[in-house]
Description:
globular, single chain
Amino acid sequence: MSSQSEHKDAVWSFLRMALSADASVGQSYFPTTQAGFDAQLQALLYDDIAREKGVSAEDIEKFASLVSRVEASDSHRNYALLNIITACAEPFFLEQITAEEAAELIDAEVSTYLSELK
Length: 118
């Protein structure tokens, strides 16, 4: 926020909301806080669509473990990774592959991408 902003209260209000643990629970994007991420994962355990798709508690735990091992990267890499994940997840959402197959595909593609960066 600019020190010369005329709307500092509104900016602070927005930042508090955006960074709160429950701001993104139930949304289709990654939360901005660890607490929000944890809450979103817990919500998946009770999500009817996730159950219908065969997403298990073990799948959620594996995903959380994968995310916990991710290290910060340059912003241009984030877009590349997002594109890889989106492309690999699409067949799952089109019901062409299972969640496990999508996770394996993402893992393989991301590993290849990261190894090519070295």
